[in-house]
Structure formats: structure tokens, C-alpha cells
Amino acid sequence: xxxxxxxxxxxxxxxxxxxxxxxxxxxxxxxxxxxxxxxxxxxxxxxxxxxxxxxxxxxxxxxxxxxxxxxxxxxxxxxxxxxxxxxxxxxxxxxxxxxxxxxxxxxxxxxxxxxxxxxxxxxxxxxxxxxxxxxxxxxxxxxxxxxxxxxxxxxxxxxxxxxxxxxxxxxxxxxxxxxxxxxxxxxxxxxxxxxxxxxxxxxxxxxxxxxxxxxxxxxxxx
Length: 222
Hints:
It is built from 10 helices and 9 strands. It is α/β, with parallel strands linked by helices. It has a single domain, classed as Glutaredoxin. The strands form 3 sheets. Strands 5-4-3-8-9 form a 5-stranded mixed beta sheet. Strands 1-2 form a two-stranded antiparallel sheet. It has a two-stranded antiparallel ribbon with strand order 6-7. Helix 1 runs antiparallel to helix 4.
């Protein structure tokens, strides 16, 4: 069985970055883990938002919650291979999510043209939304400002220029968090890890959806 972490581990074995560069990356992850950005906790009311989709329409979280639970995923962008693995994994089990009337909303800090590219290249059946001013990232407490030593590595070693890629030109990225939000607007499950090389397994998301479904069924019979 293919797992997200298995794919990521295979990718990391091909990593060509020097030990010094890898140490800077791991230090930045450690420092961020002990910083102020820690995400929203389960039990929190999910802030509403309206963002443009890759199709050019405006998408509201609360409108989607009228249809069923929402899996909200903050992706760093298509350039991030770890986020790409996660998105492809969710697409593979898309039919399982639909059994619970669940929707997936993916949020990226790039503009909507990047969202269209992601959907086309990966064959996604769910929405990719542009958080062009990063306000939703901030509302969900996932907006991470890269330190200067990491910016230098991104530019010089990884050839990644967030000033060009991100819609607002800022050197911020979302922690690749996942929130499962139910129709009552409450966050039921949170997957949050500053280490972007650790991503959620879709099977865990399906188990959470089943738990939510069974809990509602139980209460409806009381």
C-alpha cells in the first residue's frame, strides 16, 4: 500500500542538499515549532473566508459547509514536492471522501493562475483557492515568515524565489496544515506540523470523517 510518508521518505533519499544546508532547514523547523505559530485547535469555530478559485469564481467556506464537512488544506504550492505528494494522495481517495459528502478546499499563497496549473497537472477534482494577501493563512494561524538564513538557501541553493512566486511577494509560507471542519463550523480535527516533510495520511482523514459521521448518527438517535 502506497503511503504519503513512504513516498516522502523515498523522495528524501534522493536529496542532494549538503549536510550544512539540511541542518539549517532542520534548525528552522525546530525554531518554528517552538514559536508563536501553532495553528487553530480542534473545537475552535473555523473563521469564514471567501477566496477566488482557479476557475475565477469566489468560494466561501461557509457555503461549502452547507453541503457537508470540509477538509481544508494549506499547501505551500506546486513547487513543493511534499505538498504535491499530499494532494495526489487525496485525489486517489477522492471517492472515499465523497461518501461523507466531504469537500476539499486547498489554499495556496500564489495567484489563481497557479491554482489552474495545479489542477491541470495533477488532475484534481477539488478546489484550489488563492490566498493572495495571506489573510486566511493568518486567520488560521499557519502563516510562517521565513528567517533570513532560510531565504538565502531558498534563493541560492534551491532556486526558489517566493518574492516572485507568492501573490503578495512576501517570504511567507503556510505550515501545510489540514483542518477537518464540520457543518456546525467547528474544527473537529487538526493536522499541524512545522516539518513540511511530514504530511497527513488520507486514511487518517477518512477515519476522522467516519468518526464525525458516526457521532452525528448517534446523537440523531437520542
